[in-house]
Design a protein that fits this description.
mainly beta, Porin, 10-stranded antiparallel beta sheet, 5% helix
Length: 157
C-alpha cells in the first residue's frame, strides 16, 4: 500500500462572534428533555476576513437534557460590513458539572474553561466575494453569557 502524506489539521481563526439572545420560550419536557426556542435578536462579528452584524430573526432550537447538557441547533443570518448575507447553522453541545450548569442557567458569568461548549458551524453565501465560506469546514469554541453567546470561529486548515 502506498504511503500518503495527509496534511495535519490546523485552525485558522476567522473572528469573534457575539450573538444576542431574547427570552427563552420553553415548550416543556419532551422525550429528549426540555425543548426551548431562544430567539436571536442581534449581535456582531469581527475578524480579518469577516465583520458585520448578526441580524435578528433566527433562533436556537435547543434541548436541555435531564443531566443538564444542552444540545444546540441554531440558524440565523449575518450581514457583512459591505452588505453581503451569510446563512449560519450551528450544531453543538454545552455541558459541565451540575453546579456550573446551574450557575449558567441563573445567568451568572462562569469561566468558559469550567464547562464544554463546542459547535460545528455551516456557512453559506451566494455573494461572489464570500463564496469561500461555502467551501470550508468550520468549528467554534463558545461561552454562554447572561443574554448572549460569545464564540471564536475557526476554519479547519
Amino acid at each position: 500500500m502506498e504511503t500518503l502524506n495527509i496534511p495535519p489539521l490546523g485552525l485558522d481563526q476567522l473572528g469573534r462572534f457575539t450573538v444576542e439572545l431574547g427570552r427563552p420560550l420553553s415548550l416543556g419536557q419532551g422525550p429528549w428533555g426540555e425543548r426551548r426556542v431562544i430567539p436571536i435578536v442581534g449581535g456582531r462579528f469581527e475578524g480579518p476576513d469577516l465583520r458585520g452584524a448578526v441580524l435578528p430573526g433566527g433562533a436556537d432550537w435547543q434541548v436541555v437534557h435531564a443531566d443538564g447538557m444542552a444540545s444546540i441547533d441554531t440558524r440565523y443570518t449575518l450581514q457583512t460590513h459591505d452588505g453581503a448575507h451569510i446563512y449560519v447553522a450551528t450544531r453543538g453541545v454545552r455541558h459541565g458539572p451540575p453546579e456550573v450548569m446551574a450557575r449558567l442557567s441563573r445567568g451568572e458569568q462562569v469561566d468558559p474553561r469550567d464547562y464544554y461548549f463546542r459547535l460545528t458551524v455551516q456557512l453559506e453565501s451566494g455573494t461572489p466575494d464570500y463564496y469561500w465560506v461555502n467551501e470550508g469546514v468550520f468549528v467554534a469554541c463558545a461561552a454562554r453569557l447572561s443574554n448572549s453567546v460569545l464564540y471564536d470561529l475557526y476554519r479547519l486548515a
